[in-house]
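Project standup — Tuesday

K.O.: blocked on the structure for the chain from last sprint. Re-posting the sequence here as requested.
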Amino acid sequence: MKKTITAALCALLTLVMIPALAGCGAAAAVSAPAAAEAQITVSASSTVRLTPDKASVFFGVTTQETSADEAQKKNGEAVARVIATLTERGVEEKSIRTVDYGLYPQYDWSEDDGQRIIGYNATTSLSVEDQDIEDLGKLLSACVAAGINRVDYVSFLCSGYDEAYRQALAQAVALSHDKAAALAAAAGKKLGDPLSVTEGWHDTSARYAKNAEVPTAVMEQAMDAAGPIFQPGESEITASVTVCYGMK
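H.V.: unblocked you, prediction finished:
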């Protein structure tokens, strides 16, 4: 009797486990990963050259007097004349900005009196943005006549920067395709579709080409300039990409 019960239980367990095992086999077949597609990743960059057509000028007015009040007063009057000159020549107020102001004592030293203050320097720095390069010489000439006595630097701007950058991006992607195709062929494969495209970091300061400090001789030349005295050259606008392609 005991053997009969044991045989019956074994038969029942067999009937239950066979479908379960079959189900496990089916699930394993469905979840088996497909073969990974061969890939190739390349990086490429391209540069477009563009001639700047806009400029930002950074200049200032420095005045010296024996008292702090007189130095500030003289400085403020000169700055007011400069701003009036700019607006009279069509420069919008939003393009004129005070970037720095300072008041500094001047010292003298002697064995008898030691260190003593002999006067004060007041200085105001201004920036004038988004000016046409072709008018820059005459603009500075008028500002020098109004009172500026220091030109710090000039930044050149390309108004067509965004369009040039898009062109550089397109060229970089095309170059990445050529590089990937060559590598795929060398590996005995055919190049497939792009799987991902990543834009690289780009230096937006390429919109500007900063000059060193403009010497006094250049300012004097600006006084008599009949036309533009600045040669902006060309700005280099570079784009880079990393592209992952499939291979067949």
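K.O.: great, moving the ticket to review. Residues 50-162+203-241 form a domain with the Alpha-Beta Plaits fold (CATH 3.30.70.2970). Residues 2-31 form the longest helix (30 residues).
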